Amino acid sequence: MFDSDLRLSTMMAELQTDRDALIALFGRDRSTHIYGLADLEEQYWSRSKWWLRGDAAVGLIGIPGSNTSVVYAVSAADPLGTKSLLADLAAVGDLPQEFVITGPTGMASALSPSRRIDWVAAHRKMLLVSRSEPIPHSHLEPKSLGMNDAASIGTLRANDPDAGGFFYPGLLEVGPYLGIFIGGELVAMAGVHVASHQYDVVAVGNVFTHPDHRGRGLAATLMVRLLKELRSEFGSVGLNVEEANQGAIRLYERLGFEQVMDYDEAVVSGIHG
């Protein structure tokens, strides 16, 4: 395809300025688009760019308080079309050189002709569909976390080999965060990634336990308390989890979550050539 043909193909993807089309698209399958709907909140929308081509959707999300470029490319209605749109946007330079992306399974092959992929892993989206069975948990009392606890969270994450890269202190103001302290040290935490009362959705995230304190029911204690609070405020409660993290998946299933979609997450580290 000639450069002019590629640009024409990409131009056919409408740069979206009206949220209603995205709300309608994501609203068809709210269980898979909790993040997408929350990303339409004004604090994100005013910093973001969105492209639509039919039912294929790609969003370059501006995160307040974070320098990380985040791309949302999940479209339950047209995953193949979304991979094609991703490839076109990357090839003509509409996406940044480096970004973190959530997108259709196999999207790395669509991006790799023009971008270097530093890391990619299979994930699953899960939705809270039932009340959990009783699970063993710790007698330790969770405490609310706030901005004053940012340094302690950084220390905990540095000691957790499974800690992902998506945390910034501003998330402590997005929704509730809970932690368990032992001897004055934060050893476990859980909170939210996104929350939107406008669209009635919330996603649990940043669930970490210090390796020295695992197997004591700390994550279960935090999740039971957190989910009780979130259930009372939001109609749809979901989460994303790496497929390889089977221990976490088993816990989430016992808490009442069910898988609703497979997807990939990746870190794009630059441009080829």
Low-confidence stretches: none
- What would you report as the Rg, rounded to the nearest angstrom? 19 Å
Indicate the percent of residues in helices.
Answer: 25-40%
Number of domains: 2
Overall mean pLDDT: 90
How many helices? 9
Overall structural class, as computed from helix and strand content, comes to: alpha+beta
Q: Examine the secondary-structure arrangement and name the CATH architecture of the largest domain.
A: 3-Layer(aba) Sandwich
Count of β-strands: 12
Q: What is the straight-line distance between the termini? A: 18 Å
CATH C-level of the largest domain: Alpha Beta
**How is the biggest beta sheet arranged?**
12 strands, mixed
CATH topology of the largest domain: Aminopeptidase
Strand order of the largest sheet: 1-2-3-4-5-12-6-11-10-9-8-7
The quaternary organization reads as single chain
Apparent shape: globular
- Order of helical and strand elements: HEHHHEEEHEHEEHEEEHEHE
> What fraction of the residues are assigned to beta strands by DSSP?
25-35%
List the helices and strands and how they pair.
Blueprint: H1 3-11, E1 14-16, H2 19-27, H3 34-38, H4 42-45, E2 49-53, E3 56-61, E4 70-72, H5 79-91, E5 99-103, H6 107-111, E6 115-128, E7 143-144, H7 150-158, E8 178-182, E9 185-196, E10 201-209, H8 218-231, E11 236-242, H9 246-254, E12 257-271
